[in-house]
Amino acid sequence: MAENKIFAGPRVRRIRNGLGLTQTAMAEALEISPSYLNLIERNQRPLTVQLLLKLAAVYKVDLDELQGEAGGMAGQLREVFGDPLLSGEVPGDQELIEVAEAAPNAAAGVVKLYRAYREQAARLTDLAELLAREGHETSISGARLPIDEVREKFEKRPNFHARIEDAAEAFHASLGLSPGEDLAPALKGWLRTKHGIVVRTLPIHTMPNLRRRYDRHSMRLFLSERLSPFDQLREVAMEAGLLAFGDEIAAELEGLAFSTGEAKRLGRFELARYAAHAVIMPYGAFLAAAQRARYDIDMLRSRFNVSYEQAANRLTMLQRPGASGVPFFMLEVDNAGHRFRKAGAQGFPQAKFGGSCPKLNIHAAFAQPGQVLVDHVEMPDGTGFLTMSRTLDGPQAGFNERVRRTALLVACDIAHREEVVYGQVVAGSTLGPVAVGTACRLCERQGCLARAEPPVTRPLGLDEMVTGLSAFDFQ
What we know:
Layout: H1 9-19, H2 23-30, H3 34-41, H4 49-59, H5 63-67, H6 71-81, H7 93-102, H8 104-133, H9 146-156, H10 162-174, H11 183-195, E1 198-202, E2 212-215, E3 220-224, H12 229-244, H13 246-256, H14 261-280, H15 283-292, H16 297-304, H17 308-315, E4 319-320, E5 323-324, E6 329-334, E7 339-344, H18 361-364, E8 373-378, E9 384-393, E10 405-413, H19 423-427, E11 434-435
Parallel strand pairs: 1-3, 8-11
Antiparallel strand pairs: 2-3, 4-5, 6-7, 6-10, 8-9, 9-10
């Protein structure tokens, strides 16, 4: 204990003030000088072992309380000052610890106020979604990170970029591949011949925290061996796309009109991923194959030698005027329920579909890894969707690492079920559609066993005499 200096001045001061003592009176009881106690309270002197024992004996103070850090409150303050609205206000954790130590009640008040602010922001978001569903545009928005702006831009527009599609198709044709020839060697050869770039795969211990790195000095593109062959191909195709038709990507980026440089950088990365898919799965060939296979994702992944995620993602891009496919949309979540990717052939249908209902099969997919779960779901307004969900595995994990697994939902309007191979699963079903909603806070379905939050549109129906199936029953 002697080696660990304990600075607990504010806590000593609170004990003294709580007992109504002057510094002189407490110093006399502890057998130290008032000036020394004053230095302790100002954190200019640490508490010694003798003083700790004396405080415990004279004032019945809990030693753990004096020795413990204000880590809990500091952590909560860290959450507050991590908000985009306050980013950069506090340079480090030390100041937060000092605030938590010196004024814990004031710190708790700041945390409570912040959480009330977040709750009101969530309610405003719910209100904006509710109004959008009824056809009213709103300008309600909170403080946003650049990634929030990027996601919003891409989610609201069709997942189709004509300039990139045309350029990617022409570039793929210029490679002169024979039917069935592997694309990866051709792309690597093009990078080496045209730009002097050599692609190398590095072991995990050499590049432990990166999936890719381009070294401009040595003209080498390094890829992590954590990546599957499909993901490595996408990284190579991204690099090739940026070099072969960077002007078209830049033109699409300019049209999105991002407000900050960081948002533009993130948007460029998303467009480069889009371009990679367009190179690997050229529009005309992929659309023809998709229609022949009745949009069977597993058949398409085998045909183009890509991953399930890449083939499913590509299905949402088939919206070329005069040559369009079934308008699919997709949603990806992790097993904690965080939603971090949405896209749609006609924009993600947030107002009609939402994607936040716990009864969607995307959440059940984690219990059956690798299996495709198919459902016919019905919204409160009677709109129906055909949904297909499956888990995706992330980069290769080591023995002592947790596997990264997400789930992908691909869906289309139920009216297209005859065109889609998955529609036959629900065509002969006698069970009827699964009743879902956009989100609990916007859903008014009565007696829902899965309800997690009360709707913002109705008052709670609390009654001592009658209890419903949910803790959030409403009138």
